Amino acid sequence: MLLKSINKKLIILTISISALFTPTIAMASEIEPAQISYITNTRVNFRAEANMTAQIYRTIPIGEELEVIAYNSDGWSTVLSDGLQGYIKTEYITKKSIQDRYRFENFTSSVELLSWSEVRNIFTPYTPAEVYDVRTGLTYYVQSFSNGHHADVETLTQADTDIMFETYGRKWEWDPRPVWVTINGHTMAASINGMPHGGGTVSGNGMNGQVCIHFKNSTTHNGNLSFAREHQIAIDEAWEAAQ
User: Fold this and answer.
1) What's the pLDDT band for 67 if we cut at 50, 70, 90?
2) Tens digits of per-residue pLDDT, 152-192?
3) What is the pLDDT of residue 143?
4) Best CA proximity match to 145, nearest among 202, 186, 192, 185
5) Global model pTM greater than 0.85
6) Do 238 and 190 form a contact (C-beta atoms < 8 A)?
7) Kindly report the CA angle at 123 between 177 and 236, in degrees rounded to 5?
8) How far is CA 181 from CA 69, 113, 124, 127, in A?
9) Is residue 168 domain-resident?
10) Which domain holds residue 34?
11) CB atoms near residue 136 (< 10 Å)
């Protein structure tokens, strides 16, 4: 009996000591994701390993949110995307969002549905504005070009043009899209088209011309009532998204 008792104690002691020196290996599913969201600042390959020849899981489009697990010293970041763990070059990741997420949550209670007669006094020529694309969650910046029947605008930089182009599926189109436009503290439901046309004043932005932003009760230059109605429908979608 005494021998059995001693052996039992030795076994327990051995297990205890072993536990102290055995490293804990965390599985991918057990890794706590980062609490901050990030977005890619360009199209980027999401790879199985941290090297340029590794298997590509998929190509992540600009603006997609990621969860960064770790910034590695080799220039790669370990990230989660759609529940899958992989690697992306750190230079292609942009911190997003505690600010943007806070802003989005608060926009939904502060978006205004202002008529064009009111907005044109706020969105005067050469005034910059932030444009939030309701359907994709992407944000870019524009500058007013003129404010006759509606606001004619240009993107401020090449990066802004790239983001706007991405919201249209990387193909310029006339189709109106619902947006929230922020100018001098006002965030307003609006609609934008995606076909650069006419002249412009901003150089180096990669946009050949200008695009139109419509607000409640704005009209087209040529009196196209059908196209004006399409913009008003998109404005209603932007407004409803904020409710």
Assistant:
1) confident
2) 999 999 989 999 998 898 899 999 999 999 998 889 999 99
3) 94
4) 202
5) no
6) yes
7) 30
8) 33, 11, 13, 12
9) yes
10) 29-95
11) 17
Question: What letter represents residue 54's amino acid?
Answer: A
Contacts of residue 103, defined as CB under 8 A and 6 or more positions apart, other chains included, come to: none
Strand 65-71 versus strand 93-95 pairing type:
unpaired
CA distance 155 to 160: 6
Number of domains the chain is built from = 2
Residue 14 lies in a domain: no
Main-chain dihedrals φ then ψ at residue 161, nearest 5 degrees? -60, -45
Residue that finishes a domain, picked among 95, 124, 149: 95
